[in-house]
Design brief:
Number of helices: 10
Strand order of the largest sheet: 2-1-3-4-5
CATH topology of the largest domain: Arc Repressor Mutant, subunit A
Radius of gyration: 22 Å
Number of domains: 2
Largest sheet: 5 strands, parallel
Distance between the termini: 57 Å
Length: about 280
């Protein structure tokens, strides 16, 4: 729940300062602690005052923490999640809340400041608003998939494309392996394309009848964990992916393709893998 945190001598002097709810022994920089107060429980399992934001160390999250974040005290509360590869699944479960950003455990003070600043100022942005415009990079992916599908379909009219081998999980896995093989010849960062790697892994998993955890998908994205988490959240918020809680362990979540995304991906892969001349 709301674990003890060293109180600042400024707690009582800064009555108008923003309140932060800290979950999991969060290492709060001194510069931030001096500007903020820590939300305290009133002894009844409720918070004595509603915090302005929460900072959560994903690896330390327990069921009572999730219950508190889901309570009326914390409804629509902006949440900053500290996560690494080992705690990616717990970070995925926290995506059920209004996540404002992700940080690695060794985050710099400036990184936390950059996330907190818009949340603690009057008139802050509502991070839980999923109606905001789609990330331009995701919109570009959608447009490219539609363009490629239409162009190749036109090329294939009247051809024997219907006799081409189906796109199987094995073919997708071979394509993923080929993508990783490039990194033995060129710098890995040169080919970073997490959205496409995420779609490929989920497309293969759907054909295999396998559920994909957030941690597994972060590995498939082939980028740092916090970068992968940001992409997963963006794609879930945009409706491209669906996040489903683990019914056995509420601290985990699974990710799958939305039906429309699955259809587009199938069309794109069939057009790409069966392109005449390849």
């Amino acid at each position: 729940m709301n674990r003890p945190f060293p109180s600042s001598s400024n707690d009582f002097a800064l009555k108008a300062a923003p309140l932060l709810l800290l979950v999991g022994d969060v290492p709060l920089p001194d510069a931030v602690a001096l500007r903020c107060r820590i939300a305290r429980s009133d002894g009844s399992g409720r918070l004595a005052a509603r915090p302005d934001a929460a900072i959560v160390r994903a690896g330390a999250v327990e069921q009572p923490d999730l219950a508190l974040l889901a309570s009326a005290d914390c409804q629509d509360l902006p949440v900053i999640v500290i996560a690494d590869a080992e705690s990616a699944d717990q970070a995925g479960a926290l995506m059920a809340f209004a996540v404002a950003g992700f940080l690695p455990p060794d985050f710099a003070d400036s990184e936390l400041d950059a996330l907190l600043k818009p949340l603690l100022e009057p008139g802050r942005l509502e991070v839980s608003d999923t109606s905001r415009p789609l990330d331009p990079r995701l919109e570009a992916i959608r447009q490219e998939v539609e363009r490629m599908t239409a162009a190749i379909a036109a090329m294939a009219r009247g051809s024997d494309m219907l006799e081409a081998p189906p796109v199987s999980a094995a073919r997708i896995r071979a394509h993923i392996k080929a993508r990783r093989l490039r990194e033995t010849f060129f710098p890995a960062g040169l080919f970073a394309d997490p959205a496409w790697d995420i779609l490929l892994d989920l497309g293969a998993a759907r054909r295999e009848g396998r559920q994909v955890s957030v941690s597994s998908l972060c590995i498939a994205a082939a980028v740092p964990t916090t970068t992968a988490l940001r992409w997963i959240k963006t794609m879930v918020d945009s409706g491209m992916l669906i996040r489903r809680p683990d019914t056995v362990d509420g601290r985990r979540a699974f990710i799958e393709l939305a039906p429309a995304t699955s259809d587009r991906l199938d069309q794109c892969l069939e057009a790409t893998f069966n392109l005449p001349g390849l």
